[in-house]
Amino acid sequence: MSHITEKTFSTYNQEQGKVYAQTRRDYHPSVYQAVIGHHTSTGGQLDTLLDVGCGPGNVARALAPHFAHAIGIDPSEGMIATARSLGGVTSTSEPIQFEVSTAEELSPVADSSVDLIAAGNAAHWFDMPRFWAAAARVLKPGGSVALWTTGDIRAHPSVSNAAAIQDAMEEHHRQLEPYYLPGNFLVRNRYKDLPLPWTLPKPVSELDESTFFRKDWNDDDEQFFEGLPEADLDTFEKMMATGSAQTRWRQAHPDDVGTERDVIRILRRRVEGLMREAGVEEGKDVVKGTVLGTVLVVKKKV
Known about the structure:
The chain has helices at about 15-25, 30-40, 60-65, 75-85, 130-140, 160-175, 180-190, 235-240, 245-250, 265-275, and strands at about 50, 70-75, 95-100, 115-120, 140-155, 205-215, 230, 285-300. The chain is α/β, with parallel strands linked by helices. The protein has one domain (about 15-300): Vaccinia Virus protein VP39 (Rossmann fold, 3-Layer(aba) Sandwich). Strands 1, 2, 3, 4, 5, 6, 7 and 8 form an eight-stranded mixed beta sheet that branches.
């Protein structure tokens, strides 16, 4: 897969980062437990955490209490400004360090200094050959790289007219495909095609294929985000607007943003109409979603 640099989130200013932080839900504790549990049960230590593509810092803040030191990096100055404003501390009450850097450089991180590299919903934007080489450089022997992603948001079966609403969501994604980058397709197939260290034309031999771990969240009621995604239609519209393809569509159609021609507003009206057909009264139209997710863990050889 050819790498295309993602510029939608990396060019966020602080206000956009703030809105993103307020709208995006955090991951369910079971996701963090799966990551920490596998890392420690396979010999990983809890000295230094590195959150790559940290955005506003949610993952760093959730995992930092397990570690003595924590660093979050992101190429977006706006995201880093937001992360710094929200703060966070480690198990030793040391503030999380947030810095502007890329997944391909991992600066200012020293060689063989990191126990766990985490990247939540970010690896699909990385230049994976360069990332894996950088990860092998900064990881301690026995350290872990944990990458995770969500799949598509789907209508929960408990929602009135769920099948028809799901069809509307699928149509929405088809309309947005001209605005997809390769990373969007990696998310939709839950990293099944994500390049791994041993599948590269030039494999990164320091990372261990024999200990590779994958865990899938496949049940509609097995939560991947904190709380079952549930929102009124106004919040649903705001949540959908944080998607990268939706953002690129809006950048290409600035005069349509917020109007009835907006691709997100069109989806909202479609969902609204389908709920009315099912007898849901105005003001009670709450959308519930289910998100299936996947965690991958790669270890550095001892």
